[in-house]
Amino acid sequence: MDRFSAVVIGCGMISENHIKAILKTKYASLYGVCDIKKDIADKVSIINNCKAFYSIDEVLKDKNVDSVHICTPHYLHASMIIEAVKAGKTVVVEKPVTMNMNELHEVLEVARKYDAKICSVIQNRYNPCIRKLKEIIDNETYGKVLGLKGFITWHRPPEYYTNSDWRGKWSTEGGGLVINQALHTLDLLQYLGKKPEFIKATYDTRVLNDVIEVEDTAEATIYMQDGILAHFYATNNFSTDSCYDIEVNLEKAWAKYMLDRLYIINTEEIKMIEHDEAATDGKSYWGTSHAILIDNFYSNISGNGGNYTSIEDAIPSVALVDGLYKSARTGEKVRLEIQT
């Protein structure tokens, strides 16, 4: 196979990042786009000179299609992954892979039965600053990790929800801020720290009470192996979309990821050692790592090496989201069942 023939399903905002990543990689080609809104599918297909589809059934029946990119509302992810895998397609799926652990177990069972290749889009692990920080932690350059914290303060106005027929609802989004905007921060905390074992959390709807039924603010303490604690706070009620703010306390220094830069701080100096590239597609805070991850995925399944985040790699972030919601509802410290 020279190139994987790919179709992007769901032509919302994030689909642009997937389309441009497919057009950029030498291991895949954009065969088509799909949306249940015919006018939108037609418009995007014309812009990108590719085929238009109007249902996932059409896509999966087309023998020319090798892979699908699922960029649809959250409640469709699990069923679409399963359908695509059974149809023999490789899959790239936007976060969250599924809305909860029950759905993820169903998807994993099918994926393993069919030995499917599934890429989970948790692309921020590929940001240059995160890669550098992970290297520092793994090599114990400044000693062991003692603690972590992750803050995300973004802005989502009422129109973000009222202009959508699925956002802001438990049944279709699976939650609010936590599952949508803050999932990447939760994933990075566990990726940089130790395996998470428990979580104690709260959530609230502080500003958008009259607009959404889900949360717009949340906080949590994540209990990791070796007694490490990670502290998490997130809100959609800030005045703008701030950059990620993650700090790792190491034995001999602090590592601070903020303003798209990585700083090492000790008693003698503050030194900037890495920075992320400015985003050219989509939202500035989405970064540029969609293209890196998607290229790695197609390179890998083409037999040319390259690592990517698989569906198994997404287990901790889904477990953290699921556990956070359960803890907030019950008021209890919840054990996280993270098994691969």
Structure in words:
There is one protein chain. This protein is of the alpha/beta class and 340 residues long. It folds into two domains: 4-123, 3-Layer(aba) Sandwich (Rossmann fold), CATH 3.40.50; 125-283 and 311-335, Dihydrodipicolinate Reductase, domain 2 (2-Layer Sandwich), CATH 3.30.360.10. Helix content is 34%, strand content 25%. The chain contains twelve helices and 15 strands. It has helices at 15-24, 38-48, 56-61, 77-86, 101-113, 128-139, 158-162, 170-173, 177-180, 183-192, 289-301, 315-330; strands spanning 4-9, 28-34, 51-53, 67-70, 90-94, 118-121, 145-153, 196-204, 217-224, 229-235, 245-250, 254-258, 261-265, 270-275, 334-335. Helix 2 links the parallel strand 2 and strand 3 (51-53). Helix 10 crosses helix 12 (315-330). The chain is globular.
Write a brief caption for the model.
With 340 residues, the chain is of the alpha/beta class. The chain is 34% helix and 25% strand. Helix 1 crosses helix 11.
Q: Which fold does the CATH topology of the largest domain refer to?
A: Dihydrodipicolinate Reductase, domain 2
Overall pLDDT score: 95
Query: How many angstroms separate the termini?
Result: 30 Å
What's the main sheet like? 9 strands, mixed
Which stretches are poorly predicted, pLDDT < 50 over at least 5 residues? none
Helix/sheet category? alpha/beta
CATH-defined superfamily of the largest domain? Dihydrodipicolinate Reductase, domain 2
Order of helices and strands: EHEHEHEHEHEHEHHHHEEEEEEEHHE
Radius of gyration: 20 Å
Question: From the 3D coordinates, which CATH architecture of the largest domain would you assign?
Answer: 2-Layer Sandwich
Shape field? globular
Q: How many separate helices? A: 12
**Helix fraction by DSSP (H/I, runs of at least 4):** 25-40%
